[in-house]
Amino acid sequence: MVITTSKSVLVVAAHPDDEVLGCGGTIARHADAGDQVNVLIVAEGATSRQHPSAQPHTATPIATTPARHLPQSFFCRPAEVVAPELIGCLLVKRQANGELLWGVIVETEAYSQDDPACHGYRRRTPSNETLFGEPGRFYVVVSYGIHHCVNVVA
Q1: Is the model's pLDDT at 65 over the cut of 50?
Q2: In a domain, 113, yes or no
Q3: d(CA 147, CA 8)
Q4: C-alpha to C-alpha distance for 144 and 133, rounded to whole angstroms
Q5: Does residue 112 form part of some domain?
Q6: Do residues 85 and 144 both lie within one domain?
Q7: 77-103 pLDDT, tens digit each
Q8: How far apart are alpha carbons 128 and 77 in whole angstroms?
Q9: pLDDT tens across 100-142, in order?
Q10: Do 21 and 143 touch, CB atoms closer than 8 A?
Q11: Same domain, 77 and 111
Q12: Is 130 exposed, middle or buried (0-12, 13-18, 19+ CB in 10 A)?
């Protein structure tokens, strides 16, 4: 007879891409062991820095949203305006074998170039060159050496 004891784990985080990714290995170990893992994100809203002209965001149910690409003009606005409007959108990547890998954007942040938290704040370098390019481009950062964080230039 095998007796298993499962645990219920609650992760409380103020910010998903820092706290949750930082303990991702522990979360994965608990999930692999059959433990029930719940994550509670305590945040102030769609972005950490709300632009004064940003309108409150109401998510559109994905099932009723026609598939379409966002035009480049969508990204030609301040990051603080674009960020909350990305919530609920699908991020889709076609794999080499033709399969689609996708996820729903559930949290965003907005940084402008005059913000010390922005990767382009101090100087322009080969690694952050994308941030100085055309709006709508992806700037991907490896966080904690294992997670890819997708940033969108606005």
Answers
A1: no
A2: yes
A3: 25
A4: 25
A5: yes
A6: yes
A7: 999 899 888 888 888 888 888 888 778
A8: 20
A9: 877 878 788 888 888 888 888 899 999 889 889 899 888 888 8
A10: yes
A11: yes
A12: middle
